[in-house]
Design a protein that fits this description.
binds malonyl-coenzyme A; five-stranded mixed beta sheet; alpha/beta; binds adenosine monophosphate; about 500 residues
């Protein structure tokens, strides 16, 4: 039996999900997921790693479906609810999805399914009276999930996680951060990325804790429940802490004191997915008395480095390797960095590291060293024992609001516009978002292209978080002596 199922059996009487007056126990989640698994199987003994994509709101439906796919031997492919048709089609085609589950699919998903030849249906109906058939034995090394993540190579790639990877991620976080059955946590991060899927939803359910799901980051509703003392653990990206600080600074003294007091009483507050600026770290502590625990991770490897639960949580630092993880720094010449204060690429080995990009052996091979270490593309130094992230090797990777974006992917979309001759996309530093996407565009001669038209066009082509927020129209892109576009210099143009 997969370990998460055994753990849920052990917690069967506990509450897994709370929503208003509604409660779902672990026993209820197990029954519902067994019923879904049974329906998905039909007459087949095992889904044999069929990829099943789904777009379901956060909460018990999402968890029951994810568990149902896993218990039937399938591979879960969570979709982005804000994705454009072209992005969804890329995921369905790349992952070879023929079945999609969604209660209320929008036009983008319907069109993508039609184009990919995938059958779309709602959640299988649930009744405790319908007998559940025998479910297959699913071994831990089998594939469990494919999450699409942007690399430096244009379109997103599907990072595969096995059941063993997921179990190692969740038990590592349980060990490092002390997740326990009496924890309670809000879930407002998107459920097509590992931060929301594994760190929040997965870990909470692994521990037998209680999850309260929101339809995205609804700040007022989240703060209301924080004030009511609903949570013990809170996990978010830096942008959310920036937004929360602004909200707290804006409110009256009495309410601010009540909410800050409630944050202060939480057992643990974590920040990750992007660099937490020291100013935000310090301001959060000034306001709430909580010292945020910053950690570092990546879709392909889960969590690799973390400040400690007990001990020094250092501002601007991501701490030490997570349980079971090996981390090394390698310099540009390929030599291991042994000393302190010398930068090197973070390379990682351990039980949470993914086996492959789906159906993409060349990208998989390129992402590992000959001796089996995963190359993160992030650069760090060791300072007084702790790791500190310095940045990324590639300017073509942008982190905005915690989302990893490929500049090349966005450039590829912009170049589909008939009036654009050339473009360069880059991330501009931003206090709230970490980076914002900016595009330098060379219109075709006499095209008469204006920013408003281009923005409207981008809204149809890309998820909201990928869309350029700033445009600059130029007659030509800056190039070096070899004729190659020089991106970092393009920043100067925006300041001019
Ligand atoms: C939205 N807006 C942006 C933007 N996104 N502006 C600039 N840059 C962006 N990236 C604008 C919108 O157009 C809108 O403008 C306004 O901001 C509010 O938009 P919103 O969509 O309502 O924002 P909000 O819901 O508040 O979203 C912010 C957020 C979200 C931080 C909650 O971006 C988010 O959930 N990020 C988390 C991503 C994540 O989970 N990453 C983990 C990847 S895994 P206007 O003008 O209309 O008001 C990973 C591994 C690891 O990284 O280590 O964890
Ligand atoms: P993703 O591919 O969406 O999983 O994003 C992973 C990337 O997020 C990493 O490669 C880092 O660049 C970045 N990241 C995650 N956590 C941190 C952190 N604490 N500080 C700086 N960057 C981070």
């Amino acid at each position: 039996m997969l370990e998460f199922v055994q753990r849920a059996v052990n917690h069967s009487g506990r509450i897994a999900f709370r929503a208003g007056d509604r409660r779902t126990t672990y026993a209820g989640l197990l029954d519902r997921s067994a019923s879904i698994a049974s329906s998905l199987l039909g007459a087949a003994p095992d889904l044999a790693e069929e990829r099943i994509a789904f777009l379901v709101p956060a909460g018990e439906d999402y968890a029951a479906l994810q568990w149902g796919i896993w218990r039937a031997g399938g591979v879960a492919v969570p979709l982005n609810r804000g994705a454009a048709m072209g992005e969804l089609l890329h995921v369905l085609r790349t992952a070879g999805v023929s079945r999609v589950i969604s209660e209320a699919p929008g036009d983008a998903l319907l069109e993508a399914c039609a184009a990919a030849g995938a059958v779309i249906s709602g959640l299988p109906p649930y009744s405790i009276d319908v007998p559940v058939r025998a479910l297959p034995e699913v071994a831990a090394p089998r594939r469990a999930m494919i999450v699409f993540t942007s690399g430096t190579t244009s379109k997103p790639k599907g990072a595969v996680a096995t059941h063993a990877n997921l179990a190692a991620m969740m038990s590592g976080m349980e060990q490092a951060w002390g997740w326990r059955a009496d924890d309670s946590t809000p879930l407002f991060l998107p459920l097509h990325h590992v931060h929301g899927i594994v760190n929040v939803l997965g870990c909470a359910l692994w521990a037998g804790a209680c999850v309260e799901a929101f339809d995205g980051f609804r700040q007022d509703a989240v703060l209301q429940r924080v004030e009511e003392g609903a949570y013990t653990v809170f996990m978010a990206v830096p942008t959310i802490y920036v937004k929360l600080i602004a909200a707290l600074e804006d409110m009256g003294n009495e309410r601010r004191a009540a909410i800050c007091g409630a944050f202060a009483r939480m057992r643990l507050m974590v920040s990750g997915s992007a660099a937490l600026p020291a100013t935000v770290h310090l301001r959060w502590e000034e306001l709430t008395g909580q010292r945020l625990l910053e950690r570092y991770g990546m879709t392909e490897i889960g969590m690799a480095l973390s400040n400690p639960l007990v001990g020094e949580r250092r501002s601007g630092s991501v701490g030490l390797p997570m349980p079971g993880m090996e981390v090394r720094l390698v310099d540009e010449a390929g030599a291991g960095v042994t000393g302190e204060d010398q930068p090197g690429e973070i390379q990682v080995r351990g039980p949470t590291v993914f086996p492959e990009y789906w159906n993409n052996p060349s990208a998989t091979a390129a992402s590992f060293t000959a001796d089996g270490w995963f190359r993160t593309g992030d650069v760090a130094v060791r300072e007084r024992g702790y790791y500190r992230i310095m940045g990324r090797q590639s300017v073509d990777i942008i982190k905005s609001g915690g989302y990893k974006l490929s500049a090349l992917e966005i450039e590829g979309v912009l170049l589909e516009h008939p009036q654009i001759a050339e473009c360069a996309v880059l991330g501009l530093p931003d206090v709230t978002w970490g980076e914002v996407v900016a595009a330098v565009v060379v219109p075709r001669e006499d095209a008469g292209l204006d920013e408003g038209t281009l923005r409207t066009w981008c809204e149809k082509q890309m998820s909201s978080y990928k869309q350029p927020r700033r445009f600059l129209f130029v007659p030509a892109l800056p190039r070096n002596a070899m004729g190659k576009v020089v991106k970092p210099d393009v920043r100067v143009l925006f300041d001019a």
